[in-house]
Design brief:
The chain has 398 residues and is of the alpha+beta class. It folds into two domains: 269 residues, Zn peptidases (Aminopeptidase, 3-Layer(aba) Sandwich); 114 residues, Alpha-Beta Plaits (2-Layer Sandwich). 31% of the residues lie in helices and 25% in strands. The strands form six sheets. A six-stranded mixed sheet has the order 1-2-6-3-7-20. Strands 9, 10, 14, 16 and 17 form a five-stranded antiparallel sheet that branches. β12 and β13 form a beta hairpin. α2 packs antiparallel against α4. The radius of gyration is 24 Å and the shape is elongated. The two termini are 15 Å apart. 44% of the residues are buried.
Length: 398
């Protein structure tokens, strides 16, 4: 499946194509890093993707537009139905089984924020401009910049559902028709740096059930709020003693949503809390055991009072994810957010890179600079070339 790369650098440097030209916005204060026609195509593609709202579970329109765009660029495109009106987009050239896969996600968090481009500051914003339509656009333009054999050994995959549960990548990973790859480059906002790994994640939910009563006679009821508060107190103590590592730091626990009761003068019958745990070390099984041990007495006490406390887990979660970052010339970081990397099963080299910073993602000021987009095109090309050469060398050494 590997290509004959020699002389690889000569082939690649002579293989940069210029996609079809689109009207370029007015000149900005910064010199483009790409040829004018390539920069124009990049901005057009990025703008169109951002202008199409694609909040998770409503990705149909952007997926179908992207499929049409890629077909116009002579890709073979397959739509994998993940759920009704939700499709992953798989695109490739002359062959379906390729060595390299570039992948990112086309869904965004709510709410939708419209696209804008400030030509004075060269800042481009809008929902998804960073997370992760910046990566989508840059990966496509980077691939279009290769010709002949190299482009034919690259596939593109753009998935739905990453922002909620990874449904798109999970479905692709389990797809009976899925090709196997040797190199997968994932796109997320990484500040233009190569990520060496990210924390794991688990989502426990605590649900307390009591007995409603008049607040003037609280002894006639059982307060679900009291049960939940005591449970959360135990977890506040526990989070100071969770596994940590030199690479990822401390495991963190965020009490993201807490609700209970119906009124101040009513003993609460139900209460619930949703948590996000970012794992710096340890396995999901170990974390479950620690949480259960911390809450054992609370569960027992609630039962004696006539109430209950249940702990459920949104999914199995995962521990810290180590990612390949063995390519020279890139700054290296670790990140605390989750990605689709652990959802694609298989034996392959995996890299994580993208334009923009996570610190503005999911916000009303999500934005990045045009030069960050252009640099990402160049960097994705560098990643493809370097990772492919390394894979080729490793196969020779074997």
């Amino acid at each position: 499946m590997l290509l004959q790369w020699a002389p690889l650098l000569t082939l690649v440097l002579s293989a940069i194509a210029e996609p079809g030209q689109k009207p370029l916005p007015e000149a900005s204060n910064e010199t483009p890093l790409l040829p004018e026609s390539v920069s124009s195509e990049l901005l057009y593609l990025h703008r169109t993707l951002v202008e199409i709202s694609s909040i998770t579970r409503n990705e149909e329109k952007v997926g179908k537009w992207l499929a049409s765009y890629l077909r116009d660029k002579n890709f073979t495109v397959e739509l994998q139905e993940v759920a009704p009106q939700r499709y992953n987009v798989l695109a490739y050239g002359k062959k379906r089984d390729t060595t390299i896969l570039l992948s990112s996600h086309i869904d965004t968090v709510p709410p939708y924020w419209p696209y804008y481009y400030n030509k004075t500051t060269d800042i481009i914003g809008g929902r998804g401009s960073v997370d992760a339509k910046g990566s989508v656009a840059a990966q496509i333009i980077a691939t279009l910049g290769f010709k002949d054999q190299l482009q034919d050994d690259i596939s593109l995959l753009f998935v739905v559902g990453e922002e909620v549960d990874g449904a798109g990548m999970r479905a692709f990973s389990d797809w009976a028709k899925r090709p196997e790859y040797e190199i997968v480059i994932f796109g997320e906002p990484t500040e233009g740096k190569l990520v060496c790994g990210h924390k794991g994640i688990m989502h426990p939910t605590l649900k307390a059930i009591g007995k409603a009563a008049h607040s003037g006679y609280p002894w006639l009821g059982v307060s679900a709020n009291d049960i939940l508060i005591e449970a959360l107190e135990r977890l506040v103590v526990l989070r100071e003693h969770l596994p940590w590592s030199e690479k990822y730091g401390n495991t963190t626990v965020n009490f993201g949503r807490i609700e209970g009761g119906v009124a101040a003068n009513v003993v609460a019958e139900t209460a619930e809390a949703s948590l996000a745990m970012r794992l710096a070390a340890g396995s999901p099984k170990e974390i479950v055991e620690l949480v259960e041990r911390a809450l054992k007495d609370v569960i027992s006490d609630a039962k004696e009072l006539g109430g209950s406390l249940e702990v459920s887990w949104k999914n199995e979660g995962y521990g810290p994810i180590n990612i390949n970052c063995d390519i020279e010339g890139f700054d290296k970081i670790t990140v605390n957010y989750g990605t689709d990397v652990p959802h694609l099963k298989g034996d392959y080299k995996r890299y994580l890179y993208g334009p923009g910073t996570i610190f503005v993602a999911h916000s009303d000021h999500e934005a990045l600079k045009r030069l960050e987009l252009e640099q990402a095109v160049l960097d994705y090309r560098r990643l493809v070339i370097a990772a492919s050469k390394m894979e080729h060398q490793e196969n020779i050494d074997m």
